[in-house]
């Protein structure tokens, strides 16, 4: 089971105040690893964990929202790297995957895309979850079962994704047992969508944590660290890094916050705790099911996270996740990254929120920095391994020997008695980078190791004693003497930089990092940020006009965005209605941001959800047939003006100025004839649910127009780079 963006200290066994009795029981019965390392971002970590290969060799220098065309950015698992699932299936196992995948190029996520890097083509018999990097826990933007999108008109009012994934998991295991009984073992890869943003939880779980975080992040961080020392997770002379610019990126002291900030920030953390609490509840359900069918004792259960807690919520947190997520250059300084919403709505289905950076510092106690960083806060996460039937082998107690994500596969294969595959479809399989850590997990002496790290130019190299790192991106002005050096045996929290005292060790380890980088296809580095903005020319066809029908279902997110993102565009609508007809003509987005057009009471209505603030416009219509064009005109400072041209050629402005949808918004794709999956307009949804159009609805055509003038120098430079790369 892989958590998403969960920090080192977030479950009780690692010092948390969050109620996780089921995970704590698993930890107390098995091995609790304190020195497990992972790449500092999700897809590289998952690729490495599933293949036993280092992330760049596995094609994931970054997450698959980029496609610059280099081998380390292939963004699909190598054909010659059999996954843990494929290896176990080859040995007679049934194999199941649930939840987040995020190992497929965005261009291949559509129903008609190349599925060679989908779960079923990578060794799994069954799959249910979200192929994308994250989603809403109340209204997932797109769920996939096996190789097909699940058609969803609307979700039940009590739907919650963590519960649904657990139901599916128990169903897969039960059907497996019914079909093969004890004759065939199973492997399950359960990738939780929680606790990645947007953070959302059930009311009763949030209420459980009411007031728990009123003392603030400084006090909670100290309390977690004390529990960690009491539990023996670290030596008594380990120090907690002081709150300064280099440790926590300038997190403001809790005592200096306003009364309103304290209330709002505490609510954000109550939601985070409730989200994780619900995961633990579902772990309990899954464990009870395994016990019920008699499989628990002989099941190896591994629990970990893909990277450390994230600071993406910023200093204030956000109630408008996609607005905060907007990172492209050229956005106006007035851009609202935390659209005000009532505090009581934070955590519910109407708000896409994330906690402030101060709580991420608590999540990563006792380490410095966060997700995407190569300091310990980004790369050291929990790993719990329990195997009741194997307890006699010594798989019990706290272990502090180094382990990396690529080691998980060979470790589990050794425990299961299954050798790695040597050939894949007639070719030699890629050599594993990971090594089995069974000997250290059962209490053996720590083994020597060398492990590189790299993400966006931030680098590190770990050995048994030393950690060399460059905490900042390289960039054109990077100082080659800016390496930092830490003795991780005496200073696991990376406080005392010894680079000036040991220049020879720095030089030796820097040369070793270079050697490892070349061996693992780490280059080119995205050290100035521009590499991720290079897109292949093949994507240009996705920007051609597209006609959709009521039967088209929900168009995939990325394909939808290519029609609308950072540009003007038109929507041509052809429909007919009578006095009795009403409903949605087209929708695009959800509560995180988007727009929809619907007919009601002889009017065409526009609802525009500006990251939480809903703006509305309308236009009177006679009954009968209509052919209308709605225009989204790009304005300066990332804004649109929305107008329409009716059948008489008359033009009317529906909404004069709205903030443009940027980044990942709108997240739910385009839907014709109903507001499917996540609702754009909450008030409308409460009255009419998905509000299917009852009249006659013909084709809906999107016509992409001119691209925005946001940062034209950058776009000109990128076009030049693309021409060179893809010539």
UniProtKB/TrEMBL annotation:
InterPro entries: Alkaline_phosphatase_core_sf, Sulfatase, Sulfatase_CS, Sulfatase_N. It comes from the Bacteria. Residues 2-418 form the Sulfatase N-terminal domain. PROSITE patterns: SULFATASE_1. The keyword Hydrolase applies. Its EC number is 3.1.6.1. One of its GO terms (molecular function) is arylsulfatase activity. It holds the Pfam family Sulfatase. Keywords: Calcium, Hydrolase, Metal-binding. Belongs to the sulfatase family. PANTHER family: ARYLSULFATASE, ARYLSULFATASE FAMILY MEMBER. This is Arylsulfatase. It comes from Paeniglutamicibacter sulfureus.
